[in-house]
Amino acid sequence: MADRSFPASAATRVPLAIILSGLAGCADAIGFLEYSQLFVSFMSGNTTRFGAAVAEGAWDGATRVAGVIAVFCFGAFSGTLIAAWAGRWRLPVLLGLLALLLCVGLALPTGPVPFPFHAYPVVLALGMQNATLQDADGRSLALTYVTGAVVRFGTGLANLILRKPAESFWIQAPLWGALSTGAVVGGLLHRGLGEAAFLAAAAVAALLALAVTVLTVARPGSPLIAGRAPVPGAPAEAAPVQGVKARRMDPS
């Protein structure tokens, strides 16, 4: 049977993308402030920090950042495999794991400078988050970083002038706004709660997991929770479609 777990309808796909982007911004701000300016979702920033640390011979710092990048990559890797294994339960499973992992770090020891053990579960969770809105062809929205959204928004404006707008152009500004707003909220939460602010992010992920679980049980096969969309960043007015591959695999 075809994998019908991708939310094809913009009624769920778009709010999920915006909320998850805001959640990533919130967690990244909390992590940045709590873990001595270590990014937990923005790997471009960590890559720059890694290069600077190597150039300065700061090997503890280089190891610290390289380990986080490796954990994030493993999160994206394992999240994609879990999504394929879970099938139509992909969203409840991944969002439930996201909520759990955002809490786990609070119970772990800080660890030495090169190996920040308490940060690893958060980094792993945000790496896995990128698989939540990945379609059957491996395409996904940028939910945990903003560089791609800014670039696609800028090029999209140019392509509007050239009268060849990209399908996913329309959602880039909301994703940037959600991630930025989430970062502000995360910073404010950290001021009041410290590392425990991750519990607020975990609560949001848990509520999302509950919502998609209810949808999966109540509306199996509905475009709200299943099916195929033109691309993950398709315009809101784009109708869900059934791909050729899916039709061949699913006679219904």
Description:
Residues 243-252 have low confidence and may be disordered. The chain has helices spanning 10-34, 43-56, 59-86, 90-104, 120-129, 147-161, 172-193, 198-218, 244-249. It starts with 9 loop residues before the first helix and ends with a helix. The protein is mostly helical and 252 residues long. It has one domain. The protein is globular, with a radius of gyration of 19 Å. 62% of the residues lie in helices and 0% in strands. The relative contact order is 0.21. The longest helix has 28 residues, at 59-86.
How far is it from the N-terminal to the C-terminal residue, by CA? Answer: 10 Å
Percent helix among the residues? 55-70%
**Whole-number total of structural domains:** 1
**Structural class, from helix and strand content?**
mainly alpha
Q: Please indicate the percent range of residues in DSSP E strands (runs of 2 or more).
A: under 5%
Order of helices and strands: HHHHHHHHH
Q: Taking all residues together, what is the mean pLDDT?
A: 84
- Tell me the overall shape: globular
Number of strands: 0
Rg result: 19 Å
Number of helices: 9
Mind describing the biggest β-sheet?
A: none
Low-confidence stretches: 243-252
